[in-house]
Each structure stands twice: as structure tokens, then as C-alpha cells.
Design a protein that fits this description.
With 278 residues, the chain is of the alpha/beta class. The chain has 6 helices and 16 strands. Strands 5-4-3-2-1-16 form a 6-stranded mixed beta sheet. A 6-stranded mixed beta sheet has the order 8-9-10-11-14-15, with helices on one face. A two-stranded antiparallel sheet has the order 6-7. The longest helix is centred in the C-terminal third of the chain and has 19 residues. The protein is globular, with a radius of gyration of 18 Å.
Length: 278
Amino acid sequence: MITLPVALIQTRTPAAPEAALAHVEPLIREAAAGGAKLILTPEATNFLLQDRAQRDAVLETQDADVVVSALRRLARELGVWLLLGSAIVKSGHAGDERAANRSLLIDDRGEVVATYDKLHVYDVDLPTGERWRESASVRPGDGAVVADTPWGRLGLTICYDVRFPHLHRALAKAGAAMIAVPAAFTVPTGEAHWETLLRARAIETGCYVLAPAQAGTHEDGRRTWGRSTVVAPWGEVIARLDHDAPGVLFATLDLEAVTRARAAVPQLTHDREFALPS
């Protein structure tokens, strides 16, 4: 049996990168001390800010970001693989001042072995009156990413991506046995859809879904749902934090469950071409 002890870090990330690091580092150390070999943090681990001017004042390149650099050193020190669920960093695209919402997979030597820029940006007017225009400040990515780990392939997504089944299917068909869904879900959408979407993506792909989340009321007034969750390939929730406070969620993955789920329902091999509706 191939097993993998994982830990999901649930944070209430502060507005300043230095404070964000002080917040997340003890949680990562707790996860490593608990035996986790793969540790995942939420979306926007390096800071959480809605105001564009304040964001631009602390925005750095990936290599210069203090949280990215420190977590690379921490992964090496602890001897763990670490998925920095996302860091808000300069996109590196000339003429585009928007940031990248970037997930970084760091190995146990502290090397960044894969990056993924969030494909789907969250532009919405909610019935509650909340208005979000992520596209105004975040440059969408343009490619899906599946990364190799010692335990199997890991598909990378971020938050709003969870609403796009075809992305997750593509990751599974590219060999992903696990899919990461680091998130900062709003409270209304989290309460209504979070667990249902995570379970659906696991069932459709026969993958483990690992969803570390931002949680609670943040310095800029934003409220996030929390409830970090691990879903097995058959669709059952095997671990969950039932609150919106910072914390560590442990789970052990049986990677052979992926093979069993896909043998029972071999949907990834049953695609057929079809005419689109007019």
C-alpha cells in the first residue's frame, strides 16, 4: 500500500507579508512535527489585501517575496514537500501591472519544482451586495499544470478553478492522482457550494482533492469560509475542519484508492466526440 501523510494549513492571513509569515510558519512546523510529508497552505498565503494601492506597495517578484523565500528554507529545514497554495506576486509580463495568483510546489530541498498561475479569475456580483473583480488586479494564467511528487502526480488549481470540471478532468487525464484546491472562498459561496464542489471534483476525476482554506474575518474586512477539507477518490470526506479558525488538518492518503475508484467507474476512458448544441 502506498500511503502519504498530508497536512492542510488553514490560515487567517494578515495584510503584511512579514506578519503572514509569522502566522503560517508555526502551523507548518506543527504539521511537520505531526508527521506530514506533504503540507499545503491556502490561496494568498503571503498576504491578503483587497485595496490595489496597498497591494502594490508590498507586491514583489516571486524570488524577492519574503514569504516564498522563507517557506523554501523551511521546507528544506523540515525535509517536507510544501505546496504554497498561492502567493500574490508580480506576474513578470511586460506592460501588465496586474499580479499573478501563483501556486508554488516546493520539494524537500527547498527547490520550486512547479508553478501554476490561477486560470479562472473571480468576477461576480453576489446577492449579498458583495462585488468582486479579481480580473482588475490579477492576470489569469494560460496553462494547466500537473507536477511529479514521490507519491504520485499532483494537479494544481486555485479557488474559483474548482467550478470548472473540464480543468480537473484534464489534470486527471494527465495522470494526477491528487488535485490541490487552495482557496479563499467567500462565506455565502462557501456555505452553499464548498463541500459539494470538492466532492464532485473528486468523484468526476477519481482523485484525492486537497483543499486548504483561508478562514474568518481578515484585517481588510474580508470574510472567508474556512472548512479545509480532504476528499477521497470515491467522494467521501475523510478529514475536515468544522470551523473558520486557523489550524492544521491531518489526513493519510491511500494512493491505491485512486486505482480502485477508477476501476469501478472508468469514466476517464469513456469520452466520446459529440456535436455541440446550436
